[in-house]
Amino acid sequence: MPRQAAGGNGQPGYGQGGMTEPTRLLCAVVHLRPDRAEEFAEKLRKWRRNKAKQFGDKLTPKKVRERRREQVAKRALESGKSALEKALDDNEPTERKQPRVLVGHEYVRWVRRRIAAGGRPVPSHGFDLEAVLTACAQAERLLWLRRGLMALACTAGGLWLLAPLAYLAPLITLMGVWAAFYTDRVLARGRLRALIGADAGEAWGAEVPRRFRRAVEQIRDAAHGEVVPYQNQIRASGAKYHFVGAGKVWFETQIGIDVGPAKPSDEHDGQASENGNSPSRFLPSVEDLLAGGRPGDGVVTFTPDDLHAHVASELQRLIKPLQDFHPDSEQEVFGVAAISADRWKALTPEGWEGLVTLARDGVRAANAQRTPKVARRFLCARMTSWDGELVASLFVGFAYENHYLRVVIRPHVVNPVHPEPRRAEKEAMRGGWVWRRRMAYLAAVDTGWCLVRPFNRDKNRKPHPEQDPDTGPVSLREVYSTRYMDDMLQYDDARRYIDMMQGRVLAAVEGFLVEHNVDTGAYREKITVVMNNGIINTGEMSNVQNQPGAVGSQQSSGGGT
């Protein structure tokens, strides 16, 4: 059983330990610098291939050109096959290209524009956003230092024009700009080494920068994640409602039953003996439905908040742990208020307090947000493991109206951190004269890039990461995650956490219904259908195509886009 997170009373806490691995990596991205030499080499190779092809086509006989066109058409036909057909043809894994992300000063500008200045930040899962903003502010000082050195270089070049050797002015300017880029890379590498080896106290104890203070205050208000925005993601398998910041949407479970009083045991036995199978279920009569409103005659009256509190208490029951042979994990159970992403930016302080009250105490609490078209209450069960890298969340919604109970379970899993931030650990370990020569060469490439950039801008290169839609609220952790969960052990742990929490939620709901004298026959039939279809499964899936992330899967999961 995972250990309960600190905080108690259903409120999430940070638990024990220091800075998580995602926090450290997302802070280290600010001190990475792009390898423009490799980008230039890749463009040069592509240009040479295109020119060689054009030049070769001109000197190639007609029959050879026709044969090449046939080969190109054949390759195009092969590429048009579905991924499932390719897997069946050659049974070889396909290459999964990771989305493009920003590093260095481009990353800092994007964080300032989309995270810190884009309204209230999205609640963070598995990492500390405040530490990332502090690291961005520290990296901005390096940016201003580099710009200052470049301004001094340009000033020195201008003054050199007054000297007898005026023709050396451009060389002086270029050398000064090169020195600015070289200094920036050396200092960034020093900051990177200090950050990789720092502990949580050094990072979190840093002074909050002035331009980020408003965003940091809002982050502290939303530290528990009790108010979350949701948005609709249109996919090939259909529309999926995604809680921003919680990760990729996995399979969704929906169960709805007509609430009626429990039938006597002899009536169930009689139906079983007549049919020879399990008791048949018909639509409840009007008398049965009306009986649910009279406690004592039928169903004991309850509200969705009562069911919410019961399931939360059942999930928080601690079980004596066995030997420690699994990764340390923390379980958090708390209420959340879900609001549309379109309303997120327009939230006022009064509206925020009403949403927090709704998440904590329910719709009947004083000053709670009671408008159902604005926000709804969900129960969030969250597991954090792998040093904060694996976050599995379960959002459970309860709706009870007109004697009809509906339970919706939406699991989300945060994928691993993008490979680009992990490059920070390798960069921090490098040093020596070989590394300095490499930095000097990259600084020269940066100098040339700085001169060419104003005249040759790449129109296809966007100023934001590939997974950022550039509209609405955005999660830093989701944008800097991989497209797929490729690690088998991490995937197994994610499935185990989701299955465990989902099974306990369904068992708690059934126990609550039994306590309130509700007939659970229909509920058990729905659960049986769901389990037989392979949606809830504590072991291997019966059909590989039903696995989240599998080729041809009908389920949307953290393993796929």
From TrEMBL:
Keywords tagged on the record: Membrane, Transmembrane, Transmembrane helix
Biased composition range(s): Low complexity: 552-561
Keyword Transmembrane helix recorded: yes
TM region positions: 149-182
Source species, domain of life: Bacteria
Region annotated Disordered, chain positions: 260-286, 540-561
Name of the molecule in the record: Uncharacterized protein
Native source organism of the sequence: Streptomyces vastus
Classification lineage: Bacteria, Bacillati, Actinomycetota, Actinomycetes, Kitasatosporales
